[in-house]
Amino acid sequence: MLTDNSKKTPLYTNHINSNAKMVEFFNWLLPLEFSGILREAKACRSNCLMFDISHMGQIRIKGDNSEAFLQELTANDVSSIKPNGLQYNLFINSQGNIIDDFVLYRLRNSFLCIVNACNKDKVLDWLNKRKFNDLDIVDETENNAFISLQGPNSQCLLENVVGVGLDDLSYMNFLDLDLGGVKLTISRSGYTGEDGFEIICPRYYASNLWEKIKEGRGRVIPDLGGLGARDILRIEAGYPLYGNDIDETTNPLEASLKWVVKYNSKDFLGKEKILEILRKGIERKRVGFIMEDRGVPRKDYLIYSLQGSVVGKVTSGTYSPNLDRFIGMGYIDINFSYENTPIIIDIRGKSFRAFVHRYPFIKTRVKS
Hints:
The protein is about 20% helix and about 35% strand. The chain has eight helices and 20 strands. The two termini are about 40 Å apart.
């Protein structure tokens, strides 16, 4: 439902002109789809798909002690990020649970946190309450636009648009580029499981850049993607969505994000709780599953064992046009979390067979 408080990204008019179906997403007006959700999800795996992700929160942290500050509040090792590098990280609370999952950029004299739109204000408040006196914490979300170009043809297209080769830009790294006097930050990153790029540009230049990429170059013309396709693609890649698959009631160990938590090499808020959970062992785990029977597994549907006991709950589910299968993820009793374990999904009172499947569901093609 649209309200007077709905925010528009710098690309709102472009979306309207492209006949996008618009919806409200955490107070932002964003495209749900352009040419069809399933078509868009397939286009990302075979060609390239362009998304508007300008709603994502952009929080810059400046100051001599910004690294030490972030080390104290995050699970991953911030000191391991090389110049012009990115890192997937987690803000953790004192109970060892997830405040937000985000991407951290190491800039020349600062750090940039790309946080979830639903959590931006919460994270800003949380950081400001804990910040060191010499730090500046700045919300830059509405100063910029953020564009994602994903898929096997994305490099060829973007190279032709910006006039720079991108072979040497490795996964989870970025470069700063001057395009006719406009500063762009281009990272090799994304949340689809495909090779792709994310571009930060000034708000005033967003429409121009979007149209330049949209018109294509040579034989490569991108499809436009909305929230629906993004959700399918991230589930196919096994990536969690905050608010569905992770939140402040989940810890990284049960969320299958143990690889992010560097408890052996650093101290951080919530570490003792994480170590306590490690000693006791987790009781449930976020797993993927594939439906054997055709049915859509929706959030909060119950998961049963073959013996009829409730062993978990669905957190995300969809039809994958790239697999022609119904897939999902959810939290399940640790004893039933092993690959190929048969399970039952209750869909509106009927039993549908499924089996546990490891992430990702598709072969990822990120460039290392």
